[in-house]
Amino acid sequence: MIEAKSKYTKLIKTEAKRLGFLSCGISKAEFLEEEAPRLEKWLNQNKHGDMRYMENHFDKRLDPTKLVEDSKSVVSLLLNYFPSEVQNSESYKISKYAYGTDYHFVIKDKLKSLLHFIKEEIGEVSGRAFVDSAPVLDKAWAAKSGLGWIGKHSNLLTQQVGSFYFIAELIIDLELEYDTPVTDHCGTCTACIDACPTEAITEPYVVDGSKCISYFTIELKENIPSEFKGKFDDWIFGCDVCQDVCPWNRFSKAHSEPLFNPHPELLSMSKKDWEEITEETFRKVFKKSAVKRTKYSGLKRNIEFLQ
Fold it and tell me: Domain coordinates of the chain in residue numbers?
């Protein structure tokens, strides 16, 4: 049995690498005991703002066996999205993760391939793929699986490659060899806390989602509160400040996923181009991009808020 577990674990990790994942870690599918009080406190303090969906499925968020019956393992995967080129510095900014094709589609396809491979090679294995679209605490599972530690900005961090990657999971009913968490290497550094334009990192490891630029520019459907005027640092979709200033991101290397390459027009757009963007251009440039989440009207609202 131990030999089989070891063999299957190696198989899965090798295939994950072949599919282009940065790394793969595995942990036992069980109740996230440490996360439960933390999540409850965060929700009670209303740090999720208008993201009411965060209140739903509390039990499922903490217990994978409630999402996938008889699940035994959570396979966590990282996929790099760090770009080789960034927008011109005199422009309004969008988060690097949204430069190319919406990651949900790209990762979902890779996860399906991995699940198919597991069934082909190992046999009758049941499971589900998750990409940020179900009540799964991605970062907690990735940290538990030894893929990195949760930094003071609440993103997953690794010494080798920083934090510019997506996290996804396969929850399966197959017992595997489990990885162990790594230690925290933030030390006394407070770069992310000091740099956050809206002071959303209220204390180390705690982000008030309702003050975050990403929340205002993507999740919030109402008008952006006027007290944040002048604090957006030219961000109109998402925000990378806490990652950009993190010393560990000096080690970020450009991704090799063609689907994450930006639309040719995106990198050269000036502020004027953004201000004059038509619905037609929006649809063309962001045809398959995550930016579509905010819709044309939302993007216009964000741009106008900065003017």
Answer: 1-300
